[in-house]
Amino acid sequence: MNWNERGTADSEQLSQDNSARTMKKLNPSYYETTRAAQVALHCMNYQHASLFCHFSYETVKSSSLEDVMRIHTAKILFSHTETRMAPQVNCTYDDTAKANTTDDEHAFYERMRKQEKLVDGKYIPDGHGNIPAEMKPFWLLGQIASSYVMWQESSESTLYNMQQEDAPLILLLFPKQRTEDDFLDFEYVVLLHDIVSQEITQWSMHIRWNPTHGVKVLNYAQDHRDIPFPGTATATMSPASLS
Amino acid sequence: MKGLLAFAVIIAAVHCQKLFLGNQVLRIKVDDDEHLNILKSLENQQHLELDFWVPPSKTGLSVDVRVPPASLQVIKHSLEANNMQYSVMIEDVQAILDEEQEQMKENRRLERSAKSFNLGAYHTLDTIYNWMDTLKAQYPNLVSKIQIGWTYEHREMYVLKFSTGGLNRPAIWIDSGIHAREWVSTATAIWTANKIATLYGNDASLTTLLNRMDIFLLITANPDGYVFTHTSNRMWRKTRSRNSASSCIGVDPNRNWDAGFAGPGASTNPCSDSYHGPYAHSEVEVKNIVDFVKSHGNIKSFISIHSYSQLLLYPYGYKCTNTKDYKELDSIGKSAASALQSLYGTKYQVGSICAAIYQASGGSIDWTYDNGIKYSFAFELRDTGRYGFLLPANQIIPTAEETWLGLKSIMEYVYDHPY
C-alpha cells in the first residue's frame, strides 16, 4: 500500500544501500505505524526472546517511525526494490528487559531430550482456545519462530497479527522432536492471520532450539496441504506423558 | 379455572391415576327458574358424581359442571328434554391435564437448562437456538423471538426482541457472529441477552431505556458459517453460498453491503476471505437484515460485534473521509471505550474503520449510517492476537462483562439523544 493514497507525505524512496531519507510524522493510531512497529516487534522476539519471556509493547506513543518502541529503537526500512527483501530491522537491545527464565527453559529442554519417542502434537490451541499446560512451551516456541516468519514475510501491505501483540494467531502444532547434538529440532505447521487480506495462510517450519542459543528457524515454506481443523478439535500430544 | 385445573393436576399426580378419563365439562345456560331448579336437583343426586365448577346460583348465570363418563348420557338427555341449552367446554378433561403436565415438565426442563447453560463456554448453533427458547420462556413479558428469514442452507435466522410494549418503538440493534470464526462475539451476545433480561426491573438505567425503546439482538448473523466452523473449519469466515463461476464457496458478509460496494478493501476473487460477492446484498443473510432494518424504519443505533483487535469503530470504512457526525461518534466511542477499560483494564482504540484498521468497502455500519442510523458502531473484541479467534473460553465472561459497560454507555447516550 502506497502511503500516498492515504494523503500523507511522499513515501520514502529507499535504495539498497540505505542512503539518506526523510522521516515522516505519523499519527500513532494510523496503522502504518503499527505495521512498522509490528515488524520491529517480530524481529525483537525472534532475536531476543526466550521461551518463557517475549515482548509486547503498549500503545505506540510517539509520532515518528524513528521511535516506535518504548525502550528500544528500531529502524525499519522497507525495501522498495523489485526483489522482496525482509525489512531490515536494527534492534538495539536493552539487557535489563530480559527476564530470568532460564531455569524453566532448561528443565523443559532436559525433559524433551529424555524423550525416547518423538513428540507429536496437534491443535495448540484447540478450537476453544485451550492449551494444556504441558503443551504451553511448544506453543511459545512456535510463537517465537512464527515471529521470524512474519518478519520475513512482512511488507507495507500486510499486517501479520495485530497492533499490540506479538504472537501469531494460531498454532497448529506438529512438533516432531529430533535431538541433534545439543539442540532440539521441531517441525511445525502454523497458521498465520493477515489482518489486511483476512487470509489465513499455512506454513511449515523447521525450528531448532536450545536454552542457550535460543530459537532458530532453519527453513520455512508456505504449506498447501489440506490439514483439517474443525472447531471440535481438541489438543493432543503424544507420547502422552511428557514428564 | 386455572386454579381448579392445577388442583386437579395435583390430585391426579398424587394418586398417579388417570382420574378424569372421558370426563367432560359442560356449560349450561340458565334461562329461567325452572332451569335453575332442575340443575339444583341434579346437584343433589350424589350417584351422578357431578362436579359443579360454577354452581347454579341465579338465572342468567351459566353453570359449568364436570360430568363423569357414566353420567354423561343421563345429563345430556335431561338437559335436552327440558330445552336447556348447553355446550361442551372440555371434550376430555384428562387430555387437558396430560397436556398441562407435559407443559409443566417442559417448563421445568427449560428452567433447569436455562440455569445450567454455561455462559462461559462456546456452544453449537443448536444449543444456542434451544437456549434462546429457554430465555424466552424465562422472561415471557420481555423477550420474544422473531424469524427474519432463512440462511443459504435453509437455517432459520432468529432475532431476540427485548420490548416492554408499544408499537414500533425507537430501537437499538445489536448483531454478532457475522464472521463465523469470531466465536467470542457470539458468546458475548448470548451473555448480553441474558444480562439485559435479568437487569430489566433491577437496573434503573436499563429499565428506563426499555420502557421507551426496544432492543433487537441477532446472536448469529451467519449461522451456516458458524456451523461450518464447528464441523469442518474453525477458521471459516464467510457465508456458505455457492459461487457460480468458482469452486470456492462463500462471500464475506461484511463486504457485501451496499456501501461503496466492490470498492477498495474488498476482493473480486471468490476464493478470497474478503470476497465481496456478485452484487450488493447478494447474501441472503445480509438481505434479511437489510429488509428488517428498512421495514422497521425506527432503528436509532446499529452495533455490530466482531473479534479480534480491541477496537471501537464508527463509519466510514469504504472511504477515508470522516462522516459529518465524526466528532460526536468519536466522543461516544471514547466514553464507551473508557467505560469498558474501567473493569479489567482492557485497552481499546477508537476511530473510523478506515483510520483504525484499513479501507474496507461494503461494510454493515457504513450502510446503516448512510441510511439514516446515526449511531452506528462496530466492536472488535479481545484479544489483540495472542489467541486471536481462538480466545480461550475462560475469557468469555470477562470479555462480555467489560463489553457490556461499553454497550451500555452507547445505549444510554442513544436514549438521551433522540432524533
UniProtKB/TrEMBL annotation, chain A:
Keyword match Repeat: yes
The keyword Repeat belongs to this UniProt entry's keyword annotation: yes
Coiled coil: none
Residue span, Cystatin LXN-type domain: 22-100, 120-229
Pfam family, one: LXN
Keywords: Protease inhibitor, Repeat
Ranges of compositional bias, category Polar residues: 1-21
Chain spans, region Disordered: 1-23
Family that this chain belongs to: Belongs to the protease inhibitor I47 (latexin) family.
PANTHER family (alphabetical): LATEXIN
Entry protein name: LXN protein
Lineage of the species this protein comes from: Eukaryota, Metazoa, Chordata, Craniata, Vertebrata
Gene (UniProt): Lxn
